[in-house]
Amino acid sequence: MWAIALLLLSGIAVAGELRWAPEKPQRGTSISVEYIPDSARFAPGEPLWLYAYEFDAERGYPTLQEVELEYQRTRKLYAAAFRLDTATVFVLCKVGNGRTFDTRGGRFWEILMHCGSGPCPEALLRAALSRFGTLQDESWRRAPDLWEAERLLQQVVELRPEHFAARVWLLAVRGRLRKLERAAQQQQLRELLAQPYPETEGNMRAALWALNVLGESDRMERLEERILKEFPTWELGEEILLVRLNRAAVAQQYYATAERFLRMFPNSPGYEHVYVLLVRALLQNERPGEVEQLFRRFPRVPAAAYAELVRYWLERRESQKAAPWVRLMMARFQEQRMGRMHRKPRYRSTVEWSDSDRLLHAQLLALQARFLRQERRVEEAIERYREAWSAYGDRFPAELAEELVEALRVLGQHKNAFGVCTEALLQSRDSDTLWAQFRELFLQVVEPDSARMQAEMLRLQEHAAQLRRAKLWSERLDWDPPTVVDSLVYSLTGDSLRLSQLRGKVVLVDLWATWCQPCLRSFPSVQKLWELYREREDVAFVVLNVWERAPDRQKVVQEFLHNNPQYTFPVYLDPADIVPLGFGVTGIPTQLYLDRSGRLQFRSTGFSSEELYLRDMQDRLEALLQQQ
User: Which residue, of 83, 246, 383, 510, is most buried by count of CB atoms within 10 Å of its CB?
Assistant: First the structure.
């Protein structure tokens, strides 16, 4: 019998259909799959893969199986078979070509291992945790649904009342859903921690979370040390040290924690990342000598770590001091590349791993080019800049284009420099330096006509916007929000609104609070955007106050708007903070962009600069408006 998962909207399929057999697989079984492709995403017959993220009962990260799908032209579908690992209890699946993916509206397809007639408790627990919206990596992070997570956790507890981790995470979910007062949650956590429980990795992870919520930092640290000493092979130990790195209050504590990670986990996928962070921290504190000592203590130096020291000396125009490290950097990269696939983390796809390797190569080539430029070997530098540009593809930084333009101008290649400058601006690398270079080169290479130059600059900006928006649409989330986010929100006059009432319109939901300084810095941009679209009947703004700390939310918001009469966009209140909870929001300001059918297509968090913030918001709205 086939298990079928099909996402429907108004009777029309908007995502592909994946089905598998057997319907109730057991551990280690062979799975047959069929996929009817989403015609909006994939061309008929194009090469596709099933990405099956297999989770065991304990470890935080999954193991990825990339299963090549065979296209059956007569049936107009794809098919394949693969065998699950015997340790696998839960699988998240998506289908794609390496760049574009069908994730079933952000929910993924899920396969739960069965024990007898029903899902194994471990599978139910994993399915629940996957709905928290906090899985480590975007590659397998699914749309959050805490309400379904609660139901699944309750099911685990009913099957196994003694299951420690399930009971802890059930208290966590109920706390986030505000179904449990904080005092009651803490009391129940203390009672759980007072009872003996099996010392598994999953249970220990839950215990650390509970101790953190209770504020028992000393007890938490003792448990962490036990884990690090008694269970050194657990991934949880890596997680502990990475969290400590983020929390380190002083430089020496940071250095010691990073070195401990390097000693304990030399084969970890995080080794290179931590090594680079440590080198960067030392150089930020002007300690290049200690970096060289570090290289001697830990001789398996990643090329990216050498790159940090090269960058340090080049920024100080000390190319002679950079020279030996440039040679080591490039040599080490070639060594790393030889064993690249052997170092691929088990949860990374081949395309993702190849992309990371390509981008690292591009960064190293750009550094080498800068070194050659400082050594006055300009022609060689230009060759390296071009190689770096090619390796970056469409992800090259504006800085690379600026340096290449200047190097070409040194050799008098002004037309080539103008071409590079124009291409960079078309790709929205519109830094102040590049625009200044463009103006100078236009008047020098094209013609000394300021009016025509201004017209050409406007044309470039419009074309660049079109390219950005087309790319945005290919990167959309296409998430189907849980129905619970359609709760009532209220205007300051007491009028109620549900997001579903705005179906047929493109909707911007901007989440903010009066205490949030980045939110307040973003408001001038939000106001400008509102003024651009306020007359359009197919666009709606919901500037939604959430997470307010004052007891009288309406009063504090009204006072803020009274003191800032320049803001005229529509403001609403979310008294129960359901919207950020349902969308898995972890920080503000956050913008949620809903298409005409109410699906979440884009989400952004944080504030950069007013100009960039406004541009990015407008791009997302226009990308949605262009879709019929």
Answer: 510
